[in-house]
Design goal:
3 helices, 53 residues, globular, mainly alpha, single chain
Amino acid sequence: MTPIQQLYLEKLRSAFENSAHGEEMVYILGNMRRDLTAAEFQMVITTFQNSRP
């Protein structure tokens, strides 16, 4: 995983753990779509989903 993917993964985890409102999650996901390729985006989302209990 690249450093930027790690950054976004940590942002998602932090937002989720802090019970972020939908707007914050949409903002993070929007930035991810802008900054990452589709494959990189999918890898971050899959890793995030697999890390949830």
